[in-house]
Amino acid sequence: MRKGIGCAIVFGVLLLAVAAGGVVWLLDSVDKVTSDGQTDGVIVDLIEGRDTDGDLVYAPVVEYAVDGVSYRIESSVRYGGLAVPDIGDIRTVYYDVDDPSQAVSRGFWTLWFFPGLLIAIPLLLLVLMIGFGAYNRRKDAEGATGIGYAPPV
Fold first, then answer.
1. Would you give the distance in Å from CA 129 to the centre of its chain?
2. pTM for this structure?
3. What's the rounded Cα separation, in Å, for the pair 51 and 54?
């Protein structure tokens, strides 16, 4: 077995595991959008806190109504810097139709962008890794020993 192939296999498996996590997250997003109830909510408060670096962050509190009953949820997403939403901003809320008090407020970034990134980047790295491996094999077959080879002096 060629030197380094074991590392390539381990790295490839890790990349696939990260991509699988992205697929699970994406499937959860699809489930939220297609099977749960959906309504608009309004940010009514911002709860102040600190992130792990000690920077100031805010968690929006979103109020929404289902069948005339009002509910409030605190977003699991924390905002800081210029990204802090304003009180009165509208957010989409996905709620459990059997228990409307169980809800999440997610936007484009947490529904689609980050899961897509967790799928795309590992798959791109995997394709590049396979491509460089194939290139090195072809070079080896032609008599060279691959990229970065310097013959002994």
1. 22
2. 0.64
3. 5
